[in-house]
Amino acid sequence: MQVYSKLVFISVLIFIFSCTKNKYTREEYLEWFLDKDNGMLVEKKIGDYSFLLQYQSKDYQILKENPSINKELFQQLKNENSKILILTLELENNKDSQSLNNLSTEMFNYLSYNASKDFNLIIENDTLPCVLYHFEKSFKLGNNHKFLLGFSPLNFKNDKTFTLNFNDKVGGFGNVNISIEKDNLQKIQNLNVEL
Amino acid sequence: MISFKKIILLNVATILIIVLIGGIIIFFQNKKTIVYVDVVALNDNFLMKQDLEKKATATQMARKNIIDSMSVELKMLSKKIQTSKQTTDIQKFERLKELYYIRENQFVESNESQINEYKQQIWKQLQQYVKEFAEKKGIEAIIGFGDNYTVLYSTEQKDVTKELTDFINKKYKGASLQ
Predict the structure, then answer these.
(1) Which CATH number characterizes residue A110's domain?
(2) Out of A42, A46, A164, whose CB is closest to B125?
């Protein structure tokens, strides 16, 4: 009887492990980063608004920018020494699609020119200023505004939880914190891209 | 010797038991309940409130320092006028006095509007986190007790103040807690 219970246990284990995947095509890899369940795309709701934070690893950036990339070029670009941590942030209105298109001049000026100093990245006890900032207004094409944010942490290897802090001064949100968790970041190491 | 058919049956039985246990867990998790929260404690222990209180106090202190130094300057000028009685000093005193009252009113108004703005920001985030907590736990209603709220009796299990405080503080710090 013991043999058969072991057999059941092994067959259950085989069933579980056969479901985990670690080899991805370029498209699957990019999709993995857009799946909220994987923790690289985190949503934070405040009232009618949503903040969508996406972490873009170096591999993700390379693959996204180069649709027909080969293995050699991928490795070459990977080895280039860029240490900027890139995040994208989207601000959406879940109820009124027009409210974001009709930004007040004060809000537009703030988001275009002054908000960069109100974005910080918190990694453990370090607070890092934003070194790359780009605000993209949606001009009636959608109900979301996009931000491209860059930070330069020292020796970051996808091994620590980090928190984006937006100390909003005009929008009425106040202090907005969104984290990308360590446990999710560590999953990136197990992703192998097949090119 | 157990046949292949029995192994399959054993596998099926194991899967059925797992599904049954899962179903029971989901059933109890989704059971709608009514819980109670100490609103005063929840509000006082909300980290966002504590952060903004510190920020407001620092701004108010800076403004108070400006008003205090203007007041000292006015007192010194007043003494000087009493001895010298020069027209230029009297004019300077009047100008400074006027500026002092304008500044004082401005600061009172700014302090009030800053506090109101912070209260709105706190309420907005608190409301969102409480909603997410209730949805996650399958809670039907959260009844507040504390200062102006009355709950005459509730079992300890129904008081979720500590659990909710932990949840809202983790959410405020950025955790997704899906």
Answers:
(1) 2.60.40
(2) A46
